[in-house]
Specification:
It is a single chain. This protein is mainly α and 227 residues long. The chain has a single domain, classed as Rossmann fold (3-Layer(aba) Sandwich). It has 10 helices and 2 strands. The protein has helices at 25-28, 46-49, 53-60, 73-86, 94-107, 124-134, 145-150, 152-163, 187-208, 222-225, and strands at residues 66-70, 140-144. Strands 1-2 form a two-stranded parallel sheet. The protein is globular, with a radius of gyration of 19 Å. The N and C termini lie far apart (52 Å).
Length: 227
């Protein structure tokens, strides 16, 4: 199942879908030749967020199985900003970038900007409903990121069962794409996000039967650590 890189960004590339006939050859070229009985896949998180992507995926292969891994949207927003910051593509502070997100999206040609969508990408409920408009729920597996970190072996067994493949080897987990942070999250940043995502998180709990109370548990901030 090897591919040339992790995120292919094929189905969220609007230029590839301007014509009625889509050239999938460049997409297929990313995959090694398939062996008998082998499944092939890729990982592009923004497919869930990009509005036309789910329909494009269904048109390409309506029998596709899709795994969605969701993390605390508050932490996700900061991680996203931190990545853009370290890549030199974000000049604004975290809170300023959050406050500018809507105007930036409105100014983009598509009306939603994946690079600065720090808050919007964490509104999972609408994204899941959009996915389920094009794929049966049974063809999707929605996991929490914590499950992969805290219980990797049973989570991988769940994934193998969902895909209908043999159990994965019980190797030690590997930390990948881990980035350092300039500083811990500040109280004003956390409170800004929590105020806007609390209802979203509650709706997600109802939708998936999850308990996400930990996502809304305030961390300790610098002023508290000094007490």
């Amino acid at each position: 199942m090897p591919i040339t890189r992790k995120e292919l960004h094929f189905f969220d590339d609007d230029k590839r879908f301007r014509d009625a006939e889509v050239d999938y050859a460049t997409y297929h070229a990313n995959f090694a030749p398939r062996r008998a009985g082998q499944l092939r896949g890729e990982v592009t998180p923004s497919y869930l967020f990009w509005l036309p992507a789910a329909e494009r995926l269904a048109r390409y292969n309506p029998l596709m199985k899709i795994i969605v891994v969701l993390r605390n949207p508050i932490e996700r927003a900061r991680s996203h900003w931190n990545k853009e910051r370290q890549r030199g593509r974000e000049a604004l502070s975290f809170l300023a970038a959050l406050e500018a997100e809507r105007s930036r999206a409105e100014a983009s040609s598509s009306g939603h900007d994946r690079r600065t969508s720090y808050l919007a990408r964490g509104r999972y409920v609408a994204q899941l409903h959009r996915l389920w408009q094009h794929f049966p729920v049974a063809q999707t597996l929605v996991l929490r990121a914590e499950a992969l970190l805290q219980a990797p072996l049973p989570t991988l067994e769940q994934i193998a069962h969902f895909l209908g493949v043999s159990s994965f080897p019980s190797d030690e987990p590997i930390a990948a794409n881990v980035r350092s942070y300039e500083r811990p999250m500040q109280r004003a940043e956390w409170e800004w996000l929590a105020a806007r995502l609390a209802l979203e998180i509650r709706d997600l709990e109802s939708l998936l039967g999850w308990d996400c109370a930990a996502w809304l548990r305030s961390p300790r901030f610098d002023d508290e650590r000094d007490e």
